[in-house]
Specification:
alpha/beta, binds L-rhamnitol, 14 helices, TIM Barrel, binds zinc ion, 417 residues, two-stranded antiparallel sheet, globular
């Protein structure tokens, strides 16, 4: 074994932390990798499909973007090869295997995801799923499930019902519950006069969508809240309060996207409240900047605080950790890997905290000593433990990541243009 690692184990042990235990837990904690970093949220409904509307934007045209299912799968396999841990892959409905035919959103069927299920099985990952309520003419008004146009509303209700059926199918086939996240872009650029009316319509639509109950061993529903989006600055129908109330009363889990709150809001602080009242939570780990979300996730204080909130609440197993970011301006495989590895780092670091000692100090009114211990924790040789984790998972160490991804770029990505 590596000398640096052995020394690190001793230093953590002196603090009261069991490195082997932390490594075992992080290794089996699933992190769901979003498919949409690979092609800038384009999907495969049409050749050359691009993200269009929906209050989210993907910028950048770095070469090498996946142009079809085969390329996206090759890229995902590379990502799985270079990130440590246990993973799921999260698909959007627009990423179905439609066999070259146009299949509209209200026509999608489980069979369009058979080849993904086979792929997931071969790669040892579970699948999560998302209805796609953007990049579509029926979403051009900015409203989907809360539209006042009965035709638009019916179209998206059908899409959601089918998405839930597909999630149930994926979970039953793979034997791993599929989390079906619902995010809709519905909102307005300028102040609406009938907020209550739109929210009432959304509530009715959701009641229709969720009328069928599926076994929790196959699929579970999550509802993603949002504060605002690009072009929806004044109003988002599915606000935090809306979905928290809806989910609490209807047995769904809330999905908390780290990029969907005011910049100064501490999302990690919400977790202990939510997990007290909900059995489960879905996280969209993202990085907001100014007015937008979805920058590549980094091992920063926000992500570290979220991981610590999950571990310290003793509810890590109740958290479904999903990634959600997309950057088309840099090597997309690199972007993917950095974000997932950052999440894994945050979990490992949180699991290495001397929680009991910190709590004791707090209970005993030792405020200074509590701060001192957490400061001391920050300068322990975490990198040696992280590298050992990567070594055991057979993925590149931190200093091997760049050459690995540059090699893939030369070998695979550069051939795509
Ligand atoms: C958008 C939401 C949503 C999307 C993905 C593509 O603000 O965060 O989760 O990013 O579904
Ligand atoms: Zn999200």
């Amino acid at each position: 074994m590596n000398r640096m690692f052995e020394e690190a184990v001793q230093m953590y042990a002196d603090q009261g932390c069991d490195v082997e235990k932390a490594l075992a837990v992080v290794r089996k904690t699933p992190v769901s990798i979003h498919c949409w970093q690979g092609d800038d949220v384009g999907g495969f409904e049409h050749p050359g499909a691009t993200l269009d509307g929906g209050g989210i934007q993907c910028t950048g045209n770095y070469p090498g973007k996946a142009r079809n299912i085969a390329e996206l799968r090759t890229d995902l396999e590379e990502v799985l090869r270079i990130v440590p841990g246990t993973h799921k892959v999260s698909l959007h409905a627009s990423y179905g295997d439609f066999g070259g035919k146009f299949v509209d959103r209200d026509e999608i069927e489980p069979k369009h995801f058979d080849s993904w299920i086979d792929w997931a099985e071969r790669n040892g990952v579970g699948l999560d799923f998302n209805g796609t309520f953007f990049s579509h003419p029926m979403a051009a008004s900015g409203m989907t499930l809360s539209s006042k146009d009965p035709k638009v509303r019916a179209f998206w209700i059908e899409h959601e019902k089918r998405s839930r059926r597909i999630a149930d199918y994926m979970g039953s086939k793979l034997g791993i519950p599929c989390i079906l996240n619902t995010w809709i872009p519905d909102g307005m650029k300028d102040s609406p006069m009938d907020k209550y009316g739109y929210r009432k319509i959304l509530k009715q639509s959701l009641d229709e969508c969720f009328a069928i109950k599926y076994p929790a061993s196959h699929m579970r529903d999550a509802l993603e809240t949002k504060l605002f989006g690009i072009g929806a600055e004044a109003f988002t129908v599915g606000s935090h309060e809306f979905y928290m109330e809806y989910a609490a009363r209807n047995g769904q889990m809330p999905c908390m996207d780290l990029g969907h709150f005011h910049i100064g809001e501490d999302v990690s602080d919400k977790i202990s409240s939510i997990l007290l009242f909900h059995d489960e939570i879905l996280l969209h780990v993202s990085r907001p900047m100014h007015w937008d979300s979805d920058h590549v996730v980094l091992f920063n204080d926000t992500v570290r605080d979220v991981a610590q909130a999950l571990v310290f609440s003793g509810k890590l197993e109740k958290a479904n950790i999903g990634m959600d970011y997309f950057d088309g301006s840099i090597n997309r495989i690199g972007a993917w890997a950095i974000g997932v590895r950052a999440m894994e780092k945050a979990l490992l670091e949180a699991l290495l905290s001397p929680q009991q000692r910190l709590v004791k100090l707090e209970e005993n009114g030792k405020g200074f000593e509590k701060l001192a211990l957490s400061e001391q924790q920050k300068v322990l040789p975490f990198g040696a433990v992280w590298d050992e984790y990567c070594r055991r998972c057979n993925v590149p160490l931190e200093n091997e990541l760049v050459p690995e991804i540059e090699g893939y770029e030369k070998k695979v990505l550069n051939g795509r243009n």
